[in-house]
Amino acid sequence: MNIVSKSKVKPPVIILFGPTASGKSHIIVNLLGKGCEVINADSQQVYKFLDIATAKPAKEDIDRIPHHLVGIIDPKRQFNAGRFVREAEKLVFHIFKKRKLPVLAGGTGFYLKNFIYGLPEAPPSSLPVRERLKQEAGKKGIACLFNKLMDCDPEYAASIEKNDLLRIIRALEVYEISGKPLSSFNVPVKERDDMIMYKIGLSLPREELYNRINNRVEEMFEKGLVDELRFLIHKGYTPSDPGMQGIGYQEFFLMQTGCFLFTDIKELIKQNTRRFAKRQITFFKSFQDVSWFHPADVKGIQSGIENFLKKYSPYSPYTADLFQKEGIK
């Protein structure tokens, strides 16, 4: 069977998600093979040079299984959900035309939700407004902008972190452009109909997840996170740059304002990551029709994918190439 045009074929897409440190990369490396290509759905892995704290896939894994949207943008530039959805859409159909299986994998809930359900109807970004708000944050602090957001859109402000500069600026930008709060714009509630999606969610007991997070942070420091941060600062990156605002980087800048040791920073990264994982879990619960698995249930995940692909004849001859030849680990 030949793959025909985008308008006539709905490509099958695997959506793999879960909280940070839940084992998404392990599933990809130990289950999926050359029959698929991965589209990164992690908002920090899109940035260049940010490797350790973002847990980017290893080079040998990327060489074996192609990964897209990894390390594609400078940390000084913004990469938002709108751009992610547009890039991911093009990649899905490009991968499908090669008779391979597109796999979206990551933990950035806003990216995945906007891909699955579509982008909200909010107005497009305005660079002048955004730059002015960014400069205001640099002069007056993030707290000042957050208080402004509380005044004009308390509903949206309550849904984000007080130090989430990018989302604070976006919400204020929308209010200035349209005169309406971001929370008032309609968000699609029905899945897109140009693709067939199989959603795999990774779930594990809270204590086990927190142990994984703590161990990952320890490994990050062992792999040279401090040296990576020094390298980034040497290249001129600052706390206000979009790429530097992620967990694992932002905490180090506290050392400029108080008596913090690296041990303090390490514990703060663990704490912030645990809190972030808790928010991810809550967010992912809003997704419908999800097949939930413990990350160790690799055979269950494989069986679910195989049953899903049985519906798509273009893939039946290629199932053997999708899963690892050496067997399930």
What does this entry show, briefly?
By secondary structure, this protein is α/β, with parallel strands linked by helices. It has helices spanning 24-31, 59-64, 81-97, 109-117, 127-140, 142-152, 154-157, 165-178, 206-223, 225-234, 262-284, 298-309, 319-322, and strands spanning 12-17, 36-40, 67-68, 101-106, 196-202, 290-293.
Can you characterise this structure?
By secondary structure, the protein is an alpha/beta fold. The protein folds into two domains: 12-119 and 188-322, Rossmann fold (3-Layer(aba) Sandwich); 127-184, Orthogonal Bundle (Histone, subunit A), CATH 1.10.20.140. Helix content is 46%, strand content 9%. The chain has helices at residues 24-31, 59-64, 81-97, 109-117, 127-140, 142-152, 154-157, 165-178, 206-223, 225-234, 262-284, 298-309, 319-322; strands at residues 12-17, 36-40, 67-68, 101-106, 196-202, 290-293. A six-stranded parallel sheet has the order 3-2-4-1-5-6, with helices on both faces. Strand 2 (36-40), helix 2 and strand 3 (67-68) form a beta-alpha-beta unit. The relative contact order is 0.18. The model is unreliable at 1-7 (pLDDT under 50).
